[in-house]
Design a protein that fits this description.
Elements: H1 10-21, H2 32-40, H3 48-57, E1 62-64, H4 72-85, E2 90-93, H5 96-99, H6 103-116, H7 126-140, E3 145-148, H8 155-163, E4 168-170, H9 186-205, E5 211-213, H10 225-241, E6 246-252, H11 257-277, E7 283-289, H12 299-316, E8 320-322, H13 335-354, H14 364-384, H15 389-399, E9 417-420, E10 426-430, H16 438-455, H17 461-468, H18 470-473
Parallel strand pairs: 1-8, 2-3, 3-4, 4-5, 5-6, 6-7, 7-8
Antiparallel strand pairs: 9-10
Helix pairs in contact: 4-7, 4-13, 7-8, 8-9, 9-10, 10-11, 10-14, 11-12, 11-14, 12-13, 14-15
Length: 483
Amino acid sequence: MRPKNAKLTEDIFYRIREQVLGSWPTGHWIDLEESVEYLRSLPPHKSFPEVLTEAKKVNRVLLQPRGGVATITGQTALLEGFIKAGADVMPVTIDSYTRQNAYLKSEQGLSESLTKDTSVLNGFPAVNHGLRGCRKLSEAIPRPLQARHGSPDGRLLAEIIHASGWTSNEGGGISYNIPYSKKASLESSIFNWQYCDRLVGVYEEKGISLNREPFGPLTGTLVPPSISNAIAIMEGLLAAEQGVKNISLGFGSVGHVPQDIAAMKSLRMMASRLFKEFGYDVNLSTVYHQWMGNFPREESEAYSVINLGSLTSVLAGATKMIIKTPHEAEGIPTLEANMNGIRTSHHMVKMIRSQLGSLTIDVSDEMEIIQEETMLIIDEVFRLGKGDLAEGIIESFAKGVLDIPFAPSIYNHGAVMPIRDYLGAIRIVEFGNLPFNAHIKALHQERIAKRERLENKKVNHEMIVNDIFSVSNGDFFQNGTKG
């Protein structure tokens, strides 16, 4: 049965909750009323909603790195290092086995990590640590914690982290499915995330505010801003329907400063308007992800990419920035590399904020393009769903109206092909079934044609591959101005 965009009834929610908590032994440790009292006892500086709200008041960009290891001791040391370097809010990246609900494999990896005194998992197995372990981590860290993972079914994970005092959870039924999973159905992932959102709504009704953050970058590879913004807004609307009141919507850098700024400003403006139009009372914040694509191997060049992202986050008015490290090209970064990325970003943000009044970039034309495209997508999704957003999303992916470039899911058409234009902004060379009008398509074609004239060649596969690697190669512009 397809999910509907309607708040889960109390009967349905608690019936499913019994199954969720019974799916692994650590679920039995959770008592909702006790968890409410535990969360109520947290000081404001450990609340994601509180910290985000205070940052918005003073136009401050909060810094958040990435990172997760298997053990409580190791994760505590990692987060303490992040704090020492200047990070404001803390991530706990969850291991891949937990993301796929393979808790037995996570248990084996945790046991091996404890024996070897080194992490053999690529993240923190929160479900296996359970309430006691996750609370131990939370109580050791004087900052708000957020789970960052990539699970199409993170229901038990959500139960455990929130009961443990972690006041934010990243993900959504689209953004933690289509870019991550090959075979997970949208029907199941949307319903699973409705549960996660309803859980947050239940806490909200009991006086506990928790933050939810859809994953903005999607595949992180040349994703046109209108596609990522439309999906972020729709995931926000799905969350709000379940009673979520504090929502952070994110955007992943495309590497082109004016387009990034235009996308972030458009995301904030459109989401605010649509939340109000649908009658949702939401405290909205925004998240800017530094470049998610291929990174330069040279450390000095990698720092330039980090600094470009830091500059853009301030100019775009982001509430929070997700930080990369100078060692991204080498695999999972070390604590030292993470600390260097944080320090670099912190210093750059501080310098730019002090000059913000004299730094202006006119992005009005790009904002107009992004907003028109985004509304064309959202309107068509609602039309296909006959007014029901959840139905419309599923139907739109089936028809290719929603289509994320380079996503692995079998439920994604993969017919949309992006490319950079003559200035380096992301345009679309193959539209698939995106619901764009002739005017929008002509605009893309015109700007791509200008690049073709400048490079004296037609768009081809090699150009698209070059664009994917353009930031890491340092030849961002393909029009002869590099170097």
